[in-house]
Amino acid sequence: MEQKEFETEIRRIRKRLLQEAMRYLMDSEEAEDVTQETVLKLWSMRKDLDQYRSIEGLAIIMVRRMAINRRQKVVNRTDWNDAQIQTNDTPETDFISKEEDERVMRLIARLPDAQQTVLRMKHIDGLETKEIAQITGCSEEAIRSNLSKARKKIMKMFKIR
User: Fold this and answer.
1) What is the pTM of this model?
2) Where are the alpha helices (DSSP H) in 51-139?
């Protein structure tokens, strides 16, 4: 992809990327940072972008992952005592819940990319199957199939351990 094409495409999708980042981060400066990081990564990939069905879909997924990672870093920095004060749970149930959440996230990370992406988009990002199909350029049937396979694998891996 040539520079002019790249600039045109980024101008077209930048507002959507910023909105997606803002949806996860609720901070305009952080959202702007994530959007800029995404544009820079896309720029470094510009020679290979022609192989993707939807540059916008790719960019949105990148923004979401970066925003989620950034949000998790902020949550991880939260003082444990502050988090405990906000809930009525005991330290033991908090620990078990956190441990299970981390385990599920590790299991999700072991899934094939397509299944991992649609599972995160559906259950973490809260998107509908139709929206996921539009973003990824896949059919709704393919999305449902990948979701089903991903859920089955997660359940199987969760029960094994």
Assistant:
1) 0.48
2) 55-77, 80-85, 91-109, 113-119, 129-136
